[in-house]
Amino acid sequence: MSGAASLERRAVTELRAAGRKLEGYAALFGSEARIGSFVETIAPGAFRSALAGDVLALLDHDQGKVLGRTRSGTLRLSEDSRGLSFSLDLPETAAGRDVLALAERGDLGGMSFGFIVPKGGDSWQGEKRTLRTIGLKEISVVQSWPAYPDTELALRSRLSLNNEQNRRRRSLILAEAGAWS
């Protein structure tokens, strides 16, 4: 990957409400996700270095709707054998109350996370990408369908942006991805 790392997002649908807390997994190890023309998995330990940093919990990746953060202790993250688990104390804000109401009804779509891949943090075998180190920036509660909305950003780490052939290929992949949604 050349230049600055691009923010990528991925999703998983495992969460539960317990009082004013949400708990579950923001990412699962070994689970395959199809991103355009490639398949991606997360290796165990990929979040290890990110756990020491300040990570936000957001609503639908909206930086204006902060639900918690690790620095304040309202978001707790850990890795176990399944993946990146979280426990989030929901705030007494409109967004916090909305999330709690939707969680209690079972109406939330799931969880997602925003990240960057540092240089050397991924490996490729053909069209299979393995994330080995993830610079986690945020986890998000997703109200509707968890999806992979930033396919283009994910592809930038795979394809050279200076190559016209790759640019055309990326445009075709994005057009195909748009037809899926």
UniProtKB/TrEMBL annotation:
**What GO terms in the biological process aspect are recorded for it?**
proteolysis
Alphabetically ordered keywords of this record: Hydrolase, Protease, Viral release from host cell
Give the Prohead serine protease domain ranges.
8-157
Listed GO MF terms:
peptidase activity
Could you tell me which InterPro entries the record lists for this protein?
A: Peptidase_S78_dom, Prohead_protease
What is this protein's record name?
Primosome assembly protein PriA
Q: Which organism is it from?
A: Sphingobium baderi
Q: What does the organism's lineage look like at the top?
A: Bacteria, Pseudomonadati, Pseudomonadota, Alphaproteobacteria, Sphingomonadales
